[in-house]
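Hey, can you fold this one?
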Amino acid sequence: MTSIPTRLARAQQYATRAAFFLPGFATAAWAPLVPFAKRRTALDEGSLGLVLLCLGAGSLLAMPIAGMLAARHGCRAVMIATLVMVIASLPLLAIAPSPSTLGLALFVFGAGVGACDCVMNMQAIMVERDSGRPMMSGFHAFYSIGGAVGAGAMTALLALHLSPWLVCLLASAVIAALLAISLPHWRTDKAPSDAPLFAVPHGVVLAIGVLCFVAFLAEGAVLDWSAVFLHEVQQVDPSRAGLGYLAFAIAMTVTRLVGDGVVARLGRHRSILIGSLIAATGFALATFASWLPFALCGYALVGLGCANIVPALFSMAGNQKVMPESLAIPAITTLGYAGVLAGPALIGFVAQASSLVFAFSAVAVTLVCIGLAARWVRA
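Sure. Predicted structure:
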């Protein structure tokens, strides 16, 4: 018979996977709604871009606050609160009648998702530490799985001509059900009463945060620019330009599902080094291949290489002693997600000044720098 502690550990591991699945599912559920929101609010492309910034702004502002609240009240309380925000705001995204109301709903939705992204990593670090073995890649895989399920389910239901409002209610119901099942097994650990609530990241925490920024920048480059690159530079038909991101996403998800065993054998530093070199090779192949299958292999290599970099960096953040986890994880999460938001814009500026080929080549070089720099980051 399984002992109670072992059953409890497994329950916490399953609940942590659900904690990663839920924000991935919620974020992907919003993506198919964008055309409906654009038409309903009569926004042009430029105005829509400005409104969409509300989502990112909400996420970045909420992350450090979430860390402070988790330190005082535990991960469970904060994840419940943030997911309630997501559940409540998701249907509003389908009915917001004006740009201002849509922006407000996106800000609340982004704050909920961003705060949950932060605290789920704090939860994962504690569960991984208790297990005594690498688990972070597997946890992050469930974020990707949640994204695939959310996008697929929402697209399928909308294709059946269900109203966006009803589809969002169904998505919120799924989130609420998984929340109810998982919450008893989320951690309630609190920081010592005399622990600081805020500190500027420094030392190894700042170094890990910068590496996360670059890693997320590379992922954001594939998300926002791969289809444009395939169409405009490699003359791929627009109907097939999304294949690059698809190859990347599949490779990343599969690799993360088996990534914990790889990290256990190689160690975190070597996994980051090898992963960054593979990802840089993939970017080079995707950039200079003249045949679409080779380019798709390149994007798959990027996904394979990047898969374990961010999870390994978060694990290193959990092992460092320079700052408490309640301060380190929000700082690193905020820096990392800033890379997702700022990265595509930086690539656009570089491409405007030179070319997309040069911009993609620069991303490959920065990935090599991640691998080399990680050797000196000791946590």
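The radius of gyration is 20 Å. Let me know if you want another pass with a different chain boundary.
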